[in-house]
Amino acid sequence: MIAQLKTWAKQLKKQVFVLYFAYKDVRTPWYAKLFAICIVAYAFSPIDLIPDFIPILGYLDDVILVPLGVLLALKLMPDAVLADARGKAEERMKGGKPKNWLVGGLIILIWIAAVTGLLMVFVNR
Question: What are the transmembrane regions (predicted)?
Fold first, then answer.
């Protein structure tokens, strides 16, 4: 079972790289680019929207949201674009996963705003 999970995770990582190259292709429709950019940025972000230390919900985005987003984004892409992107993804996977610190910083700002909002609500009571 562990081997199957590792294989699944590797395939998911490859599909994210496919999306990364597919959204850069000029043949990709704008709506597919926009959705793919969001999925790729979140997948490459070093910080999760829901931190992993939160029981059950922490892994929800990694196990359900990212794979569903990848699946939908791949369905939006033209077949010719996907074929080219798969070849590029094979090469890129040899170099490891890039980090998207911009999205990571945005997620940190969302958490700071949420905590600040909660503190303001409870302090003003």
Answer: 30-47, 101-123
